[in-house]
Amino acid sequence: MATSPSGTENSKDRLKGVIRDFRREQVIDVARQLFGERGSIDVSMDEIASRAGVARSTVYVYFANRDELVRACLESLHSHLVAAVAASWESEPDITGRLRLLIDEMLARVDDAPAFIRMALVTQEASGRGGDAIRQELATIGLNIARLLRGLCEEGMTQGIFRPMDPDLATSLIGQQIYGAMAVRAAEPLPAERSTTVGLLTDFIVHGLGA
Amino acid sequence: MATSPSGTENSKDRLKGVIRDFRREQVIDVARQLFGERGSIDVSMDEIASRAGVARSTVYVYFANRDELVRACLESLHSHLVAAVAASWESEPDITGRLRLLIDEMLARVDDAPAFIRMALVTQEASGRGGDAIRQELATIGLNIARLLRGLCEEGMTQGIFRPMDPDLATSLIGQQIYGAMAVRAAEPLPAERSTTVGLLTDFIVHGLGA
DNA sequence: CGTCAAATCGGACAATGTGTCCGACAGCCG
DNA sequence: CGGCTGTCGGACACATTGTCCGATTTGACG
Predict the structure, then answer these.
(1) Within chain A, which residues score under 70 in pLDDT?
(2) B1 in a domain, yes or no?
(3) Which range marks the domain in which residue B159 is found?
(4) CA at B16, C1' at D28: how many angstroms apart?
């Protein structure tokens, strides 16, 4: 640690870090695309590596194993979602509008990578052996979205738009509806126009089926 | 074909058929239980075979491959569901009551084999290579349940309980909600009392979140 | 009881994919 | 130049699926 000036060393290390991140994202991008097209089970590490233009063994330098790579892809998807939502959140003061916004972005993720979402929604599967990292990541994502939803519910009730109700319950019910909608859309060969679906979904959540 | 009296031969063949069915169900039961506990990915054919007390190669006499076995398990689960619903359907004339009944039975299936349901809900994954048989079966099951739901929706609208709406849309929305609820429940380590959940869910479907 | 056929066993096999490891090699920095 | 680092590419051990086949059991029938 004393062999070179700390300034130079830091800069060098930072450069290395940047390069590493860049390579990592290169692999993640390829993996996300392949997973999005064909799900995660059907894509081998071999294929990801060769498509990313690196050796298979090199992939294992960046990711401990397959699950870690999948986890990183989920993380990437999530951060894109968060960024997209944050971008228009403040400019949409209406509660229902924000709900619509959130749903729209989530369904957009589905349209982006249907096969991957299909897998993600269920990779809670694989409860036995591996998959711990993946489930962990999904839990984190779920929690984060639940946080958004819960805020929405509480404000909706305060404003008298929603009827009084345990906010956790409301959050869970909305979450389940969105979850179902995502899963169904992910399985659909030709999903309907997203804006239409979002509108109908939001309406249903607010009004239900009753007369 | 002329070597023995046809009567005897038929009886013998039927017996063989019965035996075959019996053995098949033996394997299916074991597989369903293991899948229910740990999902389908984590259970090897080896383990299923040895737990069922047969050789691995024998399993392949009854099922062409892993997917066929999974398909058979799904079929079994579905037929149990249908039987349970049919048993109390007629004695429940109320539309909301029937909806509650259907939801209750579906969630009961989840409680029965959470890990398997988790997988089933997403085995639309594996869109590439195999999995065709499984997806086929899931589509059939989904269609059948959608049929029930659609009838419920139409009758509800006729009776003025539900607001007028495209019945296909209503069916899809309810289906998605139930789907989400099943998936979430399947992932829950300690799901809430089923009757409570069913009540809240039904209420939400009918009334939504609005004030 | 002995015979025969079908069912089952059990293990070998090829194919595929994962994760590990290591020697070779190229580029960069001192 | 000489060493360091990251990458390559391929060999390896391991697990699993699905196939195959000879040996063995079972059970029905004469």
Answers:
(1) 1-13, 122-130, 209-211
(2) no
(3) 6-207
(4) 12
| Count of C-beta atoms within a 10 Å radius of residue B31 | 27
Q: How far is the C-alpha of B170 from the C-alpha of B160, rounded, in Å? A: 14
Nearest residue on chain A to B205, alpha-carbon basis: A208
Query: B127 lies in a domain?
Result: yes
Q: Across the interface, which of B42, B162, B209 has its CB nearest the CB of A129?
A: B42
Torsion of CA A171, A173, A175, A176, to 10 degrees: 160
- Report pLDDT digits (tens) over B9-39: 456 667 777 878 888 999 999 999 999 998 8
Number of structural domains chain A divides into: 1
**Does residue A90 lie in a domain region?**
yes
3-state secondary structure of B187: helix
CATH number of the domain within which A164 lies? 1.10.357.10
Distance CA A159, CA A22 (A): 46
Per-residue flag: A127 CB under 7 A of strand C = no
Angle at which helices B167-187 and B95-112 cross, to 10°:
30
pLDDT in tens, B39-87: 888 899 999 999 999 999 999 999 999 999 999 999 999 999 999 999 9
Q: Report pLDDT digits (tens) over A54-93.
A: 999 999 999 999 999 999 999 999 999 999 999 999 999 9
Domain presence at residue A1: no
To the nearest whole Å, the CA of B22 is away from the closest chain A CA by: 29
B146–A contact, CB cutoff 8 A: no
| B7 in reach of chain A (CB within 8 A) | no
- B47 phi, psi to nearest 5 deg: -65, -45
